[in-house]
Amino acid sequence: DTGVSQDPRHKITKRGQNVTFRCDPISEHNRLYWYRQTLGQGPEFLTYFQNEAQLEKSRLLSDRFSAERPKGSFSTLEIQRTEQGDSAMYLCASRKTRMGGDEQFFGPGTRLTVL
Amino acid sequence: SQQGEEDPQALSIQEGENATMNCSYKTSINNLQWYRQNSGRGLVHLILIRSNEREKHSGRLRVTLDTSKKSSSLLITASRAADTASYFCATDAITGGGNKLTFGTGTQLKVEL
Q1: Fewer CB atoms < 10 Å away: N or C end of chain B?
Q2: Does A55 sit within 8 Å of B43, measured CB to CB?
Q3: Within its chain, how far is the Cα of A69 from the centroid?
Q4: Do B11 and B107 touch, CB atoms closer than 8 A?
Q5: Residue-wise pLDDT tens digits, A58-81
Q6: Whole-number Cα distances in Å, B36 to A8, A98, B2, B54
Q7: Over the stretch B71-97, which tens digit does the pLDDT of each residue have?
Q8: Other C-beta atoms within 10 Å of B104: how many?
């Protein structure tokens, strides 16, 4: 257990539905990242937050995706009008930028299946 | 997009043997990190090596970094069945900012009894 939690661990939805995932980082970590991993591939960067500010979004993050970190603590990732191509593992990671190491600590992931 | 490539894609060895995995990348980096992932689970951080380091050890792990060749290797000595997992290298590039990681495609390691 790295200290980063994600909820839910598994989500099955029908195409066209909206889904929301939550990530709770390690409490003193000011930076939070979202990655997506498809079967047989390494994780790919989606977006990251410094405290509550979303500082970068990958072009993988289409308009149907939105992420928030309202109080600089937990974060949510919402996918609207899901498509079968959204099926993947969504991973959250956190790190501390001051007086911390450079490693990122990953949560267990949320596996999304879009039928 | 995937920056790194791990080699081999799959590796099967006997318990007690050493396992070596290689990683190549494309851009200048701040550091390179290795992660382990058990099937369907999250990633566990193994070791980080900075761009000004050439070799690093942690327990049964040894990592080397050659920035001139843009490559790294991970050696697991005296492997155990519990080491069976996928191993990924991830680079923190100098350009781009945010210390976001770019992962390779991974090496699937199977350690048999």
Answers
A1: C
A2: no
A3: 11
A4: yes
A5: 988 899 999 999 988 999 999 999
A6: 22, 25, 17, 21
A7: 999 999 999 999 999 999 999 988 777
A8: 27
Q: How many residues does chain A have?
A: 115
Partner-chain contact A107 B48, CB within 8 Å? no
Closest CA to A101 of A22, A2, A5: A2
pLDDT of B1 over the 60 cut? no
CB B43 to CB A106 under 8 A? yes
Chain B segment 39-78 residues within 8 A of A by beta carbon are: 40-45, 48, 50
Question: Residue B2: its pLDDT value, please?
Answer: 42
Over the range A26-37, which residues count as b (16 or more CB within 10 Å of their CB) and which as e?
Answer: beebbbbbbbbb
Interface of A with B (CB under 8 A): 2, 4, 6, 31, 33, 35, 40-45, 48, 50, 55-56, 89, 91, 93, 95, 97, 101-109, 111
SS3 assignment, position A68: strand
As to burial, measured by CB atoms within 10 angstroms (0-12 exposed, 13-18 middle, 19+ buried), residue B111 is buried
* Structure tokens belonging to residue B50: 């900075």
Which tokens hold the place of B90? 């991830």
